[in-house]
Amino acid sequence: MSAVDKSYLDVTRSLGASPWRTITKVILPAAAPSIVAGMRIGIGIAWLVIVAAEIIIGNLGMGYFVWNEWNNLSITSLITGIIVIGVVGFLFDRVFGLLQSWVSYGRQV
Fold this sequence. Notes:
Elements: H1 6-14, H2 19-57, H3 62-71, H4 75-103
Helix pairs in contact: 2-3, 2-4, 3-4
């Protein structure tokens, strides 16, 4: 909400816009780029933590697969698992990057 220019709020107030209309037409569009940027950072951290948790306590998932292949000294499968984890993380970042560009309305991201 701090990203909203105060003059926009003054204009909506002087034109008699309802609080709901002010939120949906002014505040949310102005805050959307920051919200999506936070989601983009959050999904990266979440992906890292999920893979790490699978390595530590899981018996299922890509983290467990990589750890198991490391223990079995299967280097080809290990590298394949690492590449898959990287590609999925990259795809998550690109999807949220495109979403961030879409909600930015021409602003630099």
